[in-house]
Amino acid sequence: MQKNSIVGFPRIGEKRELKFTLEKFWAKGCEFDEVEKTANELKIRHWEYQKNAGIELISSNDFSYYDGMLDTIMMLGCVPQRFATIQNKTEQYFAMARGYKDGVAMAMTKWFNTNYHYIVPELHKNQSFRLDSTKIISEYKQAKEIGLKTKINLIGAVTFLGLSTTDGSDKFLHFAKVVDIYSELLSEISSLDDEVIVQFDEPYFAKEPTNGELGLLKNCYDKLANISPNIKIIVTTYFEHSNEATKILVNTPIWAMGLDFVAGEKNLQSLDWIAKSDKILFAGVVNGRNIWKNDLQKSIKLLHTIGEIIPKDKIIITSSCSLLHSPFTLKYEQKLDSELKNWLSFAVEKLDEVAILSKLFFNEPLSQKDKEFVQNNQKAIESKKTSSKIHNLDVNKRVQNISSWERELEVSKRLKIQRETLKYPDLATTTIGSFPQTNELRNVRKEYKQKTISLEDYEAYIKSYIDDCIKKQESIGLDVLVHGEPERNDMVEYFGEQMNGFAFSSNGWVQSYGARCVKPPILYGDVSLDAPMTTKWITYAQSITNKIVKGMLTGPVTIINWSFVRDDLPKSQIAYQIALCLADEIDDLQKNGIKIIQVDEAAFKEGYPLRAENISDYENWAVKSFKLSVSSAYTQTQIHTHMCYSEFGDIIHTIEAMDADVITIETAKSGNRLLQIFKSSGYSKEIGPGVYDIHSPRIPSVQEIETQIQLLLEVLPKEQLWINPDCGLKTRKWEEVTPALANMVQAVKKFR
After folding, report:
1. Could you give the angle at the alpha carbon of 494 between the alpha carbons of 488 and 497, nearest 5°?
2. Residue at 11 is within a domain
3. Active-site positions?
4. Confidence (pTM)
């Protein structure tokens, strides 16, 4: 039997090959054959990486052209009706993800508390399903052609349904139909080999499952595990403990279960139930979500704790979750500080950690290379504990001596003063901050970083972009402008580059959604600020217009949630360090004439713990860090914040406690449903609900936006509303942005 495995592997490619080929295809620069060729090369290369590292049970169907949930929608044949007339399957697939003509793309939201986005399935009362197993079977056969018998990765039926949206009907209404499709699928794949291992991902049960959902879990795997004697089923959960589900699964005929012992330490409480069953345990002890080297000694100690209860021959060592959430490899990181680099481990390096741990735990002989690996690991772990790069006494003293967390006046008085001072109209129009990042702009930034152009040439180009951006906004007729953020590569990385305690990889890309990748900063040490970060460019933009220009900052919670964060300090303390830097920045901006400042907390909701027992602690430090960030703002300085991809019903009072003057939110795909939450809670601050979706290239008509505004006005008065797109516009093209914003401004005129 195999001794190690991983939950899943990145698919974008070590140099983002899939991203670039997809974008070329979408731009009509190649046929889909070229995308398929790239994908096939990547799959083989990724399998070989795992095999060469010593991973014994390798996955297929963890690869996707866009998203695993979207693949599951296609597999189940539950395509939304508006896409049903598209005959070409490839066109249909990408239309669902990106929209087409008059067909709005399917919604995306965050995959639990990660920064990965999945396509949200849309189900209705009379939903039909039909199996399409083409992708799954072809990938298994492709692996077999190079001598690999893979485990087939699938998203579990309960997780799929639990993460779906419906027309108001029970989202588990279709449970029996969906399980029937999975049964049909298992019947088909049972003929692929004498033994086929199938991994069902059920992270839905890392949250608080209801008794009804646990009953569905049992029904599902009682049935699926009896489809064929040569099918061996693993049910895997991750991101938290899933003790309730484990207690159920040990009494089903599945072969194994995978548990996350990194984020779900309480999974240790499940070991007695597993030990009393015949189940194999896939023990997730290598962190799939962060980039620090695994402490091998600590992991071996944990494995021995597990091994005291579960017999060794029933344990398979694995990653805590899919390595999709890690950058690909350290191989190309030539510019990182050597000491810092020695503390890191990306996806390829984590393969070695899993393989070495299995050798250590199962007492297999170590080669000289293995012994050196273990020695170097412990040296790195010890050096990280004591390095002067990490600790700054002055920063820690400043956090300990925080005296004020609040603004001077309460919000109703502030807003009255701001209305009188700023003189903006009802239904004031603005954008979320960023404007298109053109290839030319990216090249200029790249050339400046590589020192192939001078500082003078770089700054001249940035100024010309801001000039053009301001002129475009004035021409369109927006009320509150932004400078467009041309100097910023990323809303977190830009700030991290200017604060002490951050480092940056050259190729540490992680898939966010589809072809969209992000390169999270590495937050390794105490955070401080030596000079203003944004004042230069925002005050320049303000100097060339009579309209108000918003200052644009990224909040402490989002910086933390979108970074790879040090693991030796509570997140609360890190957040307060960042917040003090932002408070200094706000003070500098307002002293230089900036009257509105937006502190984006786009990732506020995604950082929420999955378990209710941990939420109050998170909310406490997250709210305190935001309030600390803006505590330096004058009464007349209006503070905006932005949140996206959030269901706000369960956190509306937390949002209110943040005490921002204006919040902008993603609502374009949900009509006024999210806004109803703000009304019913008695939310008294101002709100900018997004009136069109920026993740699709399609341009909304004036009439569409008028309809959206009408829906908003059915809930809240125009005095409380701002009008804006859903999110930043950096990923769009000017030829999409300009007419869309013009239509938005035109639509507002009807209601002024």
Report:
1. 140
2. no
3. 695
4. 0.88
